[in-house]
Amino acid sequence: xxxxxxxxxxxxxxxxxxxxxxxxxxxxxxxxxxxxxxxxxxxxxxxxxxxxxxxxxxxxxxxxx
Length: 65
Prior knowledge:
Layout: H1 2-21, H2 26-48, H3 56-60
């Protein structure tokens, strides 16, 4: 449980740091969107363990090949 909370805090911390460093504009909006999706993924992955019908890890897996 502590690792789960630390993961969420770490992602939020990185997003805030990058938000302060990056200039305003399109790049900042894209980075914020990516971090929002990453945060959503981290929050929803443990919930997939509660049900057998939903496998979010498999849903979000992709290969670059």
